[in-house]
Amino acid sequence: MKQVMLGLVLLAAAPAMLRAQKQEFVRYQAGKTVSYGRLDGDQIVQLRAAPWLGGTPTGVRVARRTATLLAPATPSKVIAVGLNYQTHLGERSAAAYPGLFAKLPTSIVADGDSVVLPPDAKNVHYEGEMVIVMGKRASNVSRERAKEYVFGVTTGNDVSERDWQKADLQWFRAKAADTFGPLGPVIVTGVNYDDLLLETRLNGTVVQSQRTKDLIFSVAEIVSYISRYVTLEPGDVIYSGTPGTTQQMKGGDVVEVVLEHVGTLRNPVVQRR
Question: What does pLDDT average to in each consecutive run of 10 residues of the chain (273 residues)?
């Protein structure tokens, strides 16, 4: 009888258990075709649409090594949170609410693409970050329910020109210039977004390292706060903030941002003349 009851309990819990399993999703090009897909070992299972739009398998599989991974989302909005780790704030006090700014969808590039520095960019820094990917339309959602609207997380680099940040009225070009938003390579679901190790490497040397549990404003708090003022759509992305200190990148450098359970985002830096 006990075994039967245990079996019924496990059966009832199965859907929740399946939802909690880690899954990896990509956007990729195979030949001339661009698709969303789900990773299955060394293969990509093609989906009919973005996974956050209920994309189901088409029955087509491609070898991962034969596909080119693209930025895993094409968001309508790219929002970012500043000063969200005390180690980045230094001796300054944390704000009472998340400090937000916008990047542009045109700033996004994929894993392996170059971060191209404009000729007059003289002080460009890396900012390794966890990036939140929205799964459902969110408007004025509570903090308690905010995670229900999150699809997953990926890895990002909030490239920032520090001199422009100080000199300009807005952070428009400092944060949103073309190629200043590396993203990817995969979106992961079924992991604890609130406790992942985030590291940044510059030319192979670790220059940032902290866990996302140290975010001043958590994933739920960020999503809830933004949704009070701006409606978040499925596929929109939110850069959640960078830890520690940052330093200048130069042409010829390679920046790698590593997020636990998600993977490595690697981008060479090129100085445009």
Answer: 46 45 97 98 98 98 98 98 95 94 98 98 98 98 98 98 97 98 98 98 98 98 98 98 98 98 98 94
3-state secondary structure of 87: helix
Calpha distance 13→44 (Å, rounded) = 28
pTM: 0.92
The answer to whether residues 96 and 202 belong to one domain is yes
How many Å apart are CA 268 and CA 256, to the nearest integer?
Answer: 9
Instruction: Report the SS3 class of residue 122.
Output: coil
119 DSSP assignment: T
Domain enclosing residue 58, as ranges: 2-70
Q: Are residues 37 and 95 in the same domain?
A: no
Same domain membership, residue 133 and residue 59:
no
Which phi-psi region, left, alpha or beta, contains residue 180 (left: φ > 0; alpha: ψ -120 to 50)? alpha
Tallying the residues shown for the chain, one arrives at 273
- Maximum Cα–Cα distance across the chain: 76
